[in-house]
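Example for tutorial group B:
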């Protein structure tokens, strides 16, 4: 099985885009597809690894949208965190510099202690410059946004106390697979 939105046919190509954790590396076999590796990681309970892998495999807008959809499954965000999520969603719909800079502002307000702040940070790291608007242009490192998306989804699954983490991970990864298959991530209700 291949995911229509993931441009890499083999899992090993995605693993070359970042430094994967030790847990997922022994699962890889030559010629394994992204779908096969995600399935195997899920079977082994390597949920965080599967999230980071899929975040790197998806194109930037789809990855950020996945983080937004996962964050939308929670109903315990404060006003600043909701602002960060809304800013990230706005960028997905209108991926311009104004939306990107607004997401930066909202990430700072929400802080990076939660998944909402990290999804807005992912938008800021999606392109453009990571310095101030009047400073010399410094582009973000490639795939830095994917690390932020992975962090967002992992924190959204785990916080506040980890009690619902496994159920959330299953739901969130299913949502990511739906997006990878060309869907919008809408698979059901909150965990």
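The residue assignment follows.
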């Amino acid at each position: 099985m291949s995911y229509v939105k993931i441009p890499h046919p083999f899992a090993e190509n995605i693993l070359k885009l970042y430094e994967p954790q030790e847990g997922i590396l022994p699962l890889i076999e030559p010629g394994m597809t992204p779908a096969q590796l995600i399935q195997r990681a899920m079977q082994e309970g390597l949920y965080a690894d599967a999230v980071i892998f899929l975040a790197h495999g998806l194109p930037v807008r789809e990855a950020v949208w996945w983080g937004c959809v996962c964050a939308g499954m929670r109903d315990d965000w404060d006003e600043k965190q909701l602002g960060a999520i809304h800013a990230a969603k706005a960028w997905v719909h209108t991926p311009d510099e104004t939306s990107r800079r607004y997401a930066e502002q909202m990430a700072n307000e929400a802080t990076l202690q939660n998944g909402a702040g990290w999804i807005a940070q992912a938008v800021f790291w999606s392109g453009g410059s990571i310095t101030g608007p009047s400073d010399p242009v410094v582009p973000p490192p490639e795939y830095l946004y994917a690390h932020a998306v992975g962090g967002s989804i992992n924190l959204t699954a785990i916080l506040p106390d980890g009690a619902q983490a496994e159920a959330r991970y299953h739901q969130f990864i299913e949502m990511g697979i739906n997006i990878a298959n060309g869907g919008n991530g809408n698979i059901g209700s909150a965990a």
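Residues 11-180 form one domain. Compare this with the pattern of hydrophobic and polar residues in the output above.
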